Amino acid sequence: MKNCLIIIDSIASLYRLELAMNNDAVNANRELGVHMAILTEIARKKKIPVIMTNQVYSDFEDRERAKTVGEML
Questions:
Q1: CA dihedral 72, 9, 62, 20 (to 10 degrees)
Q2: CA dist list (Å): 4 to 1, 26, 36, 46, 60
Q3: CA–CA dist 58, 34 (Å, integer)
Q4: Contact 16, 73 (CB under 8 A)
Q5: Is the dihedral of CA 57, 58, 62, 65 positive or negative?
Q6: Is residue 39 classed exposed, middle or buried when 0-12, 13-18 and 19+ CB atoms within 10 A define those classes?
Q7: What is the pLDDT of residues 5-14, one digit of tens each?
Q8: pLDDT score of 62
Q9: Measured distance CA(56)–CA(18) in Å, rounded
Q10: Global pTM value
Q11: How much is the pLDDT for 63?
Q12: At CA 20, angle to CA 17 and CA 21, rounded to 5?
């Protein structure tokens, strides 16, 4: 097998968009969990590394604490 790698940038951005449109955090979190489980299964069974990044939100008024998208959901 050739060298393989799956990289997903800003994994939660689509779920954050769904949350903004539907205001349904439970469903957005469930869908994110399902997709992360699928990626985990691919990584384990196919031995393909998966790298997922997430956005970090920083409140410029409160520079003491940066929030992750997961905390906002």
A1: -40
A2: 8, 33, 18, 10, 39
A3: 27
A4: yes
A5: positive
A6: middle
A7: 999 988 888 7
A8: 63
A9: 18
A10: 0.63
A11: 57
A12: 90
Q: What's the mean pLDDT in 19-46?
A: 87
- The structure tokens listed for 45 are 């069974």
Q: Is the pLDDT at 59 greater than 70, yes or no?
A: no
Residue 73 has pLDDT above 50, yes or no: no
Q: Give the CA radius of gyration of the chain.
A: 15
> For the chain, where are the alpha helices, taking DSSP H only?
13-22, 25-46, 69-72
Cα separation, 65 vs 62, whole angstroms? 6
